# Entry
Amino acid sequence: MPALSKRAESLGTENAFVVLAEVNALARAGRDIISFCIGQPDFPTPVHIQDAAVAAIRAGRHGYTPSAGIDELRAAAARSMSALRGFEIRPEEVVVGAGAKPFIAYAIASVTDYGSGDEVIYPVPGFPIYESQIVANGAVPVALPLREARRFAFDPDELAARITPRTRLLILNSPHNPTGGLLARADYEAIAAVLARHPQVWLYADEIYSKLVYDGEFVSIAGLPGMRERTIISDGASKTYAMTGWRIGFTASATLAPVFTRWITNTESCASQISQWAALAALEGPQDEAEAMRARFRSRRDLIVRLLNQVPGFACASPGGAFYAWPNVSEACALIGARDSEELRKRLLHEAGVAVLADIHFGPRTEGEGQHIRFSYAASEEHIERGVARIADFIRANTRPPRK
# Structure
């Protein structure tokens, strides 16, 4: 059998889908599983967006589009991103792709050279595709720990200590997956002050949850002095408009837009034309359903945080955005004799019938930060109440007596 490449063998995965497959297998075997593992809205795509897709099909819009996307959607995305961020983004800076995820790889491949020792700094815990694509593109991953005591921001001094002459890219994500943390303007000002001393470093601002903010304001680092030209802004339709399967993302960078366009030409050719017209309707049409979804997520956030904090051994900070809760379960692990969060996760799945993700699914665990698990509260209120109740019952039933 011919061998695989080192690149293929090193390619990571997204464990939400791995656990989801395990959940589905248990469900097929007749188990009743309440799942909090997948991060996608549980609402249907708004009807006017569906109607726009049907209209595009009926109008014969079935073929290729320009690799950068249809002009109408690029202009609409530029207007939408500009309005939220408070500075102008021009349509020619915007490139449309088959979801926001491909731009992670395109950005890394565009600013690092394979095997040259170029370094990419990324948040831990963080979206697992960051590290996977850094390694697959032959760059060196440099983990930057998020600190619970800082509301899941990182220490600027720790960032400064990790930047070397080989650093080429810093990945930022706010609102954040998996913690739900939200970087404040002061956080970005501290980051910008560090980066001002290192003009060779690009920024990848993963802002896919930018319209799902519940506390404070959404801030983009690209709006700070000196940051605009070096920041790759990534956003999309998936989370805001319940369009995960439609696969539409967009990225803005004046310098890299032509490069990203060539990447798309070389890989996917273009995003689905039908989905592009649907995304145009999402951005340009009524926003009341998107706002209603955000309000429901905020209500669910409040519900799940309140309930998790009533579970023995759980301590859950209130996330500022996205739709994830990230409770510290160090005490819960000790109560039931679980070695770590991964053992707790497995026991919750197989013994309590509740699916969550463990912190090790989001990068190496940081010493001193304790044990955590992730809940996606893109689930009904009934699901949240029943699932957390099962966990509380499981912890109480399995708590070991204290040693004398």
Notes: The longest helix spans residues 288-308. The mean pLDDT is 95.
